[in-house]
């Protein structure tokens, strides 16, 4: 599992509930100002190896540590670093991103906020495979929901969490 924050914890707990064997929680090194305590606590309670993805200068040793864990698949949600091709290629079943927005319209970060700022009537969650681009890989599934007049960032994030975990449940074999 690559991620931090509430969304990543929700995804990890959902996958564990579905019988997935998680081997690690990977957090990005560029998480300045982000509280990863809940994710790290969950990883510790679940006995997951905790790794930090370094900047590209030290990606080789990180890749070696990840390879030693022999994961088949990576699930990513709420992650602020791009995975280089050498990491993506380590996973035989690929990397699946839970993107907190509708693709292809809203790529990149902070898409929930942009959907609200742009006055969108709906947003949603997209599952897609990672490739070398930013949120450009093949789509797996998508779930849409309305942005109501009374919604704010907190309520939309809650809807994203519910929609994203439901998509994971539908998709997981």
How would you sum up this structure in a few lines?
By secondary structure, this protein is of the alpha/beta class. Helices cover 36% and strands 21% of the residues. The strands form two sheets. It has a five-stranded mixed sheet with strand order 1-4-5-6-7. Strands 2-3 form a two-stranded parallel ribbon.
Overall mean pLDDT: 93
CATH architectural group:
3-Layer(aba) Sandwich
Strand pairing plus helix content: what structural class? alpha/beta
- The gross shape turns out to be globular
Rg estimate, integer Å? 16 Å
InterPro entries: Formyl_transf_N, Formyl_transf_N_sf
Pfam family, one: Formyl_trans_N
Domain Formyl transferase N-terminal: 26-167
Protein name: Formyl transferase N-terminal domain-containing protein
Describe this structure in words.
This protein has helices at residues 5-17, 37-45, 59-69, 85-88, 111-117, 153-171, and strands at residues 2-3, 24-28, 49-53, 74-77, 95-99, 122-129, 139-146. The relative contact order is 0.16. It is globular and about 50 Å long. The chain has 6 helices and 7 strands; from the N terminus they run βαβαβαβαβαββα. The chain has 173 residues and is of the alpha/beta class.
What topology emerges from the helices and strands here?
Layout: E1 2-3, H1 5-17, E2 24-28, H2 37-45, E3 49-53, H3 59-69, E4 74-77, H4 85-88, E5 95-99, H5 111-117, E6 122-129, E7 139-146, H6 153-171
Parallel strand pairs: 1-4, 2-3, 4-5
Antiparallel strand pairs: 5-6, 6-7
């Amino acid at each position: 599992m690559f991620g931090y924050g509430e969304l990543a914890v929700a995804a990890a707990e959902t996958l564990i509930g579905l019988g997935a064997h998680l081997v690690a929680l990977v957090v990005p090194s560029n998480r300045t100002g982000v509280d990863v305590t809940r994710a790290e606590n969950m990883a510790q309670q679940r006995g997951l190896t905790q790794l930090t993805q370094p900047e590209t200068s030290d990606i080789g040793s990180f890749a070696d540590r990840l390879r030693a864990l022999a994961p088949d698949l990576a699930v990513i949600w709420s992650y602020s670093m791009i995975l280089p091709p050498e990491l993506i290629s380590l996973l035989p079943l690929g990397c699946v991103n839970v993107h907190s927005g509708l693709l292809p319209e809203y790529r990149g970060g902070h898409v929930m906020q942009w959907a609200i700022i742009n006055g969108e009537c709906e947003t949603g969650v997209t599952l897609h495979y990672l490739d070398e681009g930013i949120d450009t890989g093949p789509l797996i599934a998508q779930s849409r929901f309305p942005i109501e007049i009374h919604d704010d960032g907190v309520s939309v994030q809650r809807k994203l969490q519910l929609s994203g975990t439901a998509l994971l449940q539908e998709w997981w074999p």
